[in-house]
Amino acid sequence: MTSELTNRLEAFLFAEGGSLSRKKLLQLLECKSEELNSAVAELSTSLDGRGISLVQTETEIALVVASSTQSALEKAFEKELGREIGEAGLEVLAIVLYRGASTRAQIDYVRGVNSSTSVRTLLARGLLERTGNPDDAREYLYRPTTELLAYLGITAAQELPEYATIRGELASFEQTQKASEPFGHDEPATSDNA
Description:
CATH architecture of the largest domain: Orthogonal Bundle
Number of strands: 5
CATH superfamily of the largest domain: Winged helix-like DNA-binding domain superfamily/Winged helix DNA-binding domain
Structural class: mainly alpha
Strand order of the largest sheet: 1-3-2
Largest sheet: 3 strands, antiparallel
Distance between the termini: 45 Å
CATH class of the largest domain: Mainly Alpha
Oligomer: single chain
Strand content: 5-15%
Helix content: 40-55%
Shape: elongated
Number of domains: 2
Protein backbone atom coordinates (compact mmCIF):
# COMPACT_ATOMS: atom_id res chain seq x y z
CA MET A 1 0.00 0.00 0.00
CA THR A 2 1.43 3.34 -1.04
CA SER A 3 1.62 6.28 1.32
CA GLU A 4 -0.56 9.35 0.92
CA LEU A 5 2.54 11.45 0.14
CA THR A 6 3.49 9.04 -2.66
CA ASN A 7 -0.05 9.23 -4.08
CA ARG A 8 0.11 13.03 -4.10
CA LEU A 9 3.57 12.94 -5.71
CA GLU A 10 2.20 10.73 -8.50
CA ALA A 11 -0.82 13.02 -8.96
CA PHE A 12 1.33 16.17 -9.27
CA LEU A 13 3.71 14.53 -11.73
CA PHE A 14 0.82 13.20 -13.82
CA ALA A 15 -1.00 16.55 -13.83
CA GLU A 16 2.18 18.38 -14.88
CA GLY A 17 2.66 16.17 -17.92
CA GLY A 18 6.39 16.89 -17.79
CA SER A 19 9.15 17.21 -15.25
CA LEU A 20 8.86 19.06 -11.97
CA SER A 21 11.82 20.37 -10.03
CA ARG A 22 12.52 18.86 -6.64
CA LYS A 23 12.25 22.37 -5.18
CA LYS A 24 8.75 22.82 -6.64
CA LEU A 25 7.69 19.36 -5.43
CA LEU A 26 8.87 20.16 -1.91
CA GLN A 27 6.63 23.25 -1.97
CA LEU A 28 3.63 21.45 -3.51
CA LEU A 29 3.84 18.44 -1.21
CA GLU A 30 4.79 20.52 1.84
CA CYS A 31 7.35 17.96 2.92
CA LYS A 32 11.04 17.62 3.75
CA SER A 33 13.71 16.48 1.32
CA GLU A 34 14.06 13.06 3.02
CA GLU A 35 10.29 12.50 2.80
CA LEU A 36 10.33 13.38 -0.90
CA ASN A 37 13.22 10.97 -1.54
CA SER A 38 11.29 8.22 0.25
CA ALA A 39 8.11 8.93 -1.76
CA VAL A 40 10.11 8.95 -5.02
CA ALA A 41 11.65 5.57 -4.18
CA GLU A 42 8.24 4.15 -3.24
CA LEU A 43 6.60 5.45 -6.43
CA SER A 44 9.45 4.16 -8.60
CA THR A 45 9.08 0.69 -7.07
CA SER A 46 5.29 0.68 -7.45
CA LEU A 47 5.59 1.59 -11.15
CA ASP A 48 8.06 -1.22 -11.86
CA GLY A 49 6.73 -3.42 -14.68
CA ARG A 50 3.94 -1.01 -15.62
CA GLY A 51 3.35 1.23 -18.65
CA ILE A 52 4.96 4.30 -17.13
CA SER A 53 8.07 4.77 -15.06
CA LEU A 54 9.70 7.47 -13.00
CA VAL A 55 12.89 9.21 -14.06
CA GLN A 56 14.89 11.63 -12.01
CA THR A 57 17.94 13.81 -12.11
CA GLU A 58 19.54 15.69 -9.26
CA THR A 59 17.09 18.55 -9.78
CA GLU A 60 14.00 17.16 -11.58
CA ILE A 61 11.53 14.26 -11.48
CA ALA A 62 9.10 13.14 -14.19
CA LEU A 63 6.74 10.34 -15.21
CA VAL A 64 7.63 8.91 -18.62
CA VAL A 65 6.58 6.08 -20.89
CA ALA A 66 8.23 2.84 -19.79
CA SER A 67 10.76 1.43 -22.25
CA SER A 68 8.70 -1.79 -22.49
CA THR A 69 5.72 0.13 -23.95
CA GLN A 70 7.58 2.78 -25.93
CA SER A 71 7.58 0.92 -29.26
CA ALA A 72 3.79 0.39 -29.14
CA LEU A 73 3.26 4.11 -28.52
CA GLU A 74 5.68 5.11 -31.26
CA LYS A 75 3.81 2.84 -33.70
CA ALA A 76 0.46 4.40 -32.75
CA PHE A 77 1.80 7.96 -32.98
CA GLU A 78 3.52 7.20 -36.27
CA LYS A 79 0.14 6.18 -37.69
CA GLU A 80 -1.51 9.34 -36.36
CA LEU A 81 1.35 11.59 -37.48
CA GLY A 82 1.21 10.13 -40.97
CA ARG A 83 -2.19 11.74 -41.50
CA GLU A 84 -2.65 15.27 -42.76
CA ILE A 85 -3.64 17.75 -40.08
CA GLY A 86 -6.65 18.62 -42.23
CA GLU A 87 -8.95 21.60 -42.17
CA ALA A 88 -9.76 21.16 -38.47
CA GLY A 89 -6.06 21.30 -37.57
CA LEU A 90 -5.54 24.38 -39.70
CA GLU A 91 -8.48 26.09 -37.98
CA VAL A 92 -7.01 25.34 -34.54
CA LEU A 93 -3.60 26.65 -35.62
CA ALA A 94 -5.16 29.82 -37.04
CA ILE A 95 -7.08 30.45 -33.81
CA VAL A 96 -4.00 29.99 -31.61
CA LEU A 97 -1.78 32.05 -33.94
CA TYR A 98 -4.19 34.98 -34.32
CA ARG A 99 -5.98 34.85 -30.95
CA GLY A 100 -2.91 34.08 -28.88
CA ALA A 101 -2.59 31.58 -26.06
CA SER A 102 -5.99 29.90 -25.71
CA THR A 103 -7.64 27.25 -23.57
CA ARG A 104 -9.22 24.24 -25.25
CA ALA A 105 -12.65 25.62 -24.31
CA GLN A 106 -11.84 28.92 -26.05
CA ILE A 107 -10.67 27.10 -29.17
CA ASP A 108 -13.83 24.95 -29.13
CA TYR A 109 -15.98 28.06 -28.68
CA VAL A 110 -14.54 29.86 -31.70
CA ARG A 111 -14.72 26.74 -33.89
CA GLY A 112 -18.13 25.64 -32.59
CA VAL A 113 -17.01 22.00 -32.26
CA ASN A 114 -14.89 19.86 -29.95
CA SER A 115 -11.25 20.26 -30.95
CA SER A 116 -9.59 17.67 -28.70
CA THR A 117 -8.46 15.40 -31.55
CA SER A 118 -6.91 18.26 -33.51
CA VAL A 119 -5.22 19.72 -30.43
CA ARG A 120 -3.76 16.31 -29.54
CA THR A 121 -2.44 15.83 -33.09
CA LEU A 122 -0.91 19.31 -33.18
CA LEU A 123 0.76 18.73 -29.80
CA ALA A 124 2.16 15.40 -30.99
CA ARG A 125 3.56 17.05 -34.11
CA GLY A 126 5.23 19.80 -32.10
CA LEU A 127 3.14 22.59 -33.65
CA LEU A 128 1.43 23.54 -30.37
CA GLU A 129 2.73 23.55 -26.82
CA ARG A 130 0.72 23.18 -23.63
CA THR A 131 1.46 25.34 -20.61
CA GLY A 132 -0.26 25.94 -17.30
CA ASN A 133 -2.95 28.60 -17.17
CA PRO A 134 -2.01 31.23 -14.57
CA ASP A 135 -5.69 32.27 -14.32
CA ASP A 136 -7.09 28.75 -13.72
CA ALA A 137 -4.91 25.84 -12.59
CA ARG A 138 -7.56 23.34 -13.78
CA GLU A 139 -6.89 24.03 -17.46
CA TYR A 140 -4.04 24.54 -19.91
CA LEU A 141 -3.16 27.19 -22.45
CA TYR A 142 -2.13 26.18 -25.95
CA ARG A 143 0.46 28.26 -27.78
CA PRO A 144 2.24 28.02 -31.13
CA THR A 145 5.72 26.51 -30.88
CA THR A 146 8.88 28.10 -32.20
CA GLU A 147 9.01 25.23 -34.72
CA LEU A 148 5.62 26.31 -36.11
CA LEU A 149 6.74 29.93 -36.42
CA ALA A 150 9.96 28.82 -38.11
CA TYR A 151 8.00 26.60 -40.52
CA LEU A 152 5.81 29.60 -41.40
CA GLY A 153 8.93 31.72 -41.91
CA ILE A 154 8.09 34.24 -39.19
CA THR A 155 9.62 35.17 -35.85
CA ALA A 156 6.38 36.30 -34.16
CA ALA A 157 2.65 35.81 -34.79
CA GLN A 158 2.33 39.56 -35.38
CA GLU A 159 4.08 39.03 -38.73
CA LEU A 160 1.16 36.95 -40.04
CA PRO A 161 -0.91 38.45 -42.88
CA GLU A 162 -3.61 40.85 -41.67
CA TYR A 163 -2.76 40.00 -38.05
CA ALA A 164 -4.34 43.08 -36.43
CA THR A 165 -7.52 42.83 -38.53
CA ILE A 166 -8.14 39.13 -37.95
CA ARG A 167 -7.24 39.37 -34.25
CA GLY A 168 -9.75 42.22 -33.89
CA GLU A 169 -12.44 40.26 -35.74
CA LEU A 170 -11.91 37.24 -33.48
CA ALA A 171 -12.23 39.41 -30.37
CA SER A 172 -15.35 41.06 -31.78
CA PHE A 173 -16.87 37.65 -32.61
CA GLU A 174 -16.29 36.37 -29.07
CA GLN A 175 -17.75 39.53 -27.51
CA THR A 176 -20.82 39.43 -29.79
CA GLN A 177 -21.42 35.74 -29.06
CA LYS A 178 -21.09 36.20 -25.30
CA ALA A 179 -23.45 39.17 -25.35
CA SER A 180 -26.09 37.18 -27.24
CA GLU A 181 -25.96 34.24 -24.80
CA PRO A 182 -27.31 35.48 -21.46
CA PHE A 183 -27.02 32.09 -19.78
CA GLY A 184 -23.57 31.21 -21.10
CA HIS A 185 -22.84 28.66 -23.76
CA ASP A 186 -22.77 24.90 -23.79
CA GLU A 187 -19.61 22.95 -24.60
CA PRO A 188 -19.63 22.04 -28.28
CA ALA A 189 -20.95 18.49 -28.60
CA THR A 190 -19.78 17.62 -32.07
CA SER A 191 -16.30 16.35 -32.78
CA ASP A 192 -13.72 17.62 -35.22
CA ASN A 193 -13.19 14.12 -36.65
CA ALA A 194 -15.32 14.87 -39.70
